[in-house]
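Q: Two folds, back to back.
A: First:
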Amino acid sequence: MRKIYIAGPDVFEQDSKDIGKRYSNLCKEYGYEGLYPLDNVVDFNQEKKKIAKDIYKANKDLINSCDIVIANLNSFRGKESDSGTVWECGYATAKGKKVYGYLHRSNSYQEQFSSEEKMSSKDGFIDLQGRVIEDFDYPVNLMIACSVEKIVVGDFEDVLKILEN
């Protein structure tokens, strides 16, 4: 059975274990085994940095063992996707895994900035700190947009439906 690593900031939700079970069950319905980061067994009775290293290694091992990554690329604590999720996507891509992302919106990265958050410049638009806001008509940074197989507007199950075809 092919395996899907379930990436995203969902692990930070208060009901994260329930979310993981729901996604894993959806994977099973579509003929896959879902690998959720919180499925890992980690000893939380040790130094914080050791816990972090153990989580890192366990998640990396899950990615190594999967065939596909499905990543929640929705904005997290700002306008960008979760940095841990982006790292997982990059790592999986470098390992030759198929990576798919999903978003609840279709607008471009630049369109996420309101008129109060951006200004015109000779280079297009800049943010309030004077930095150019990239404009490639992708909903996320070009490096993630160009490295994934597809970004689906929808949710986790919508990606599974695409894999089915």
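A: Second:
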Amino acid sequence: MIVNKVGIVGAGMAGMTVGILLAEAGVDVEILDSAAGPTQLGSGITLQGNALRILRQIGAWDRIKELGYAFDSIGIRAPDPHATVLAIIDDVRTGGPDLPATLGMRRPDLAAVLRELVHESGGLIRYGCALDGIDSDDHTATAILGTGERLTYDLLIGADGINSTTRRLLGIEVEPRSTGAGAWRVVVPRPADIVRTDLIYGGPHYLAGYCPTGDDSIYAYIIEPAQARDVKDGAVIFKELAAGYGGPWKEIAASVDENTSINYTWFTTHLVEEPWHRGRVMLIGDAIHNCPPTIAQGAAMALEDAWVLAEELNDGNGTLDEALLRVRARRFERAKTVVDSSTQLVEWMVDGRTDTDVAGVMHKVATMLEVPA
């Protein structure tokens, strides 16, 4: 192992996963999160096979398969009053034949499992630790917190998401840009006939879809032009948007009320070409590459980053700088393909294009992802 003590900024999927892997290898791991404590925010998440592969490797699979809902196909429905099923397509098992193609689950449940594994591996999560500055030299990286506390490590990993403070403190000027689309997401009870993700293109909005997240729950989403929205009015707005769809959407809309978990976000994208590290500070996950969820690969790319970084550090070959350069070399083209493809699908929706090969783009990405990171 090239490093003995590592600080990780951000207790999200990338941060906790790399923390688990390094702690299990004997590294002293501290995860610094700006939140006051563990968050229960978030709707659902779609985890494809290559994400499940990493989660199995860190020991999470047996836990999440009991909490989530697995399926191996995707449905396409018509924007008619009955949401007629037009096609059911077998999905690619990108994690290998012994894992499902997709598992849907609630984001807070996944976060809770990862937190348990961090603690079991010997890692530490410190809350209320907002990053305010960084000092890095040839031998150490120091995180300067908003409280003035200075924490020094052999390596500091920035896994603090789309609006990464670490990225900005490193002087990297790449920022997320809007794709022109925004999404409403709700968590509601699962109608009995929803057993996979079904998508509706060509209806009153860009896209409507849902994903089962457990035996008794789904998260449903409607994608529209990005605009200023007040989530306080979310229940009313979502019901109005959903009224344009039939079939299971009638039951989904009827389930939404003022107590429903609802959020609204714009789809953004960014990719840092290089560098991915400066001195002894390394960026991973959404901090370095962020894509719209049109191919459901954002979480998977973050998890793969964590796996590759831990693997290169554990190899112990060469200097730390050489190991971090190898991480980018292994990850860049794969992440770029996912970011470009996900963004392309959104741009086609926003532009109202009908002469496109959505299935071809998705198949190309899935075929690439069958090969482990």
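Q: And?
A: The chain has two domains: 5-176+269-369, 178-268.
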